[in-house]
Amino acid sequence: MASQIQSAQKWKFDVFFNFRQQDLDKSFVADLLKRLKDIGINAFKPDGNSDWGEQISTEILEAIEESRIAVTIFSKDYTSSPRCLEELTKIMECVDNKGQEFFFVFYKVEPSDGLSPLGTFEADINGFDLEKVQRWKDALRIADDMAGSRDYFAGAQFSHW
Question: Pfam families in the record, alphabetically (predicted)?
């Protein structure tokens, strides 16, 4: 019992959502967060001043580290967002190092459609640090392994890297 209490106390949030906001219906995340709050689940919600641009903020990194569960919502252009991939990389680190739980949802895409790890920024890949790109690739592979090795991110999609 004591270990359960200690475990519960080390998390500031119950859940952190990793998603590409432009791919989701405007009310999807707001409705989800409200429903979770209504049933007593403390989900991270950035304040109105948080930057949801392509750069990952310190606030977001800390929220990932302080969340017991991370949920990634894979959508059509999820992998076109360096911010999403950076968040996923941090999530995979926390899964490995902090015992964070990881779940995923496919939003308006079928798992069999595959998700290109390069997304729409493939033409701009030379502008990214190769080590960073490798971390993104590794995070996607880990997520794939956690999804049951169903090869959602494998095969031809990685041939571009």
Answer: TIR
Q: How far is CA 83 from the centre of its chain?
A: 9
Write out pLDDT tens, residues 111-124. 665 555 544 444 34
Structure token pair of residue 72: 């990634």
CA dist 82 and 15 (Å) reads 21
Number of residues written out for the chain: 161
Taking the C-alpha atoms of residue 34 and residue 96, their distance in angstroms, rounded to an integer, is: 29
d(CA 111, CA 147): 10
What domains appear along the chain, each with residue ranges and CATH number? 2-160 (3.40.50.10140)
Render pLDDT for 93-103 as a digit per residue (tens, 0 to 9): 999 999 999 99
Between CA 34 and CA 29 the distance in angstroms is 8
Work out the end-to-end distance of the chain between its first and last CA atoms, rounded to an integer number of angstroms: 47
Residue 135 CB partners (closer than 8 Å, separation 6+): 89
Cα–Cα distance, 59 to 144 (Å, whole number):
27
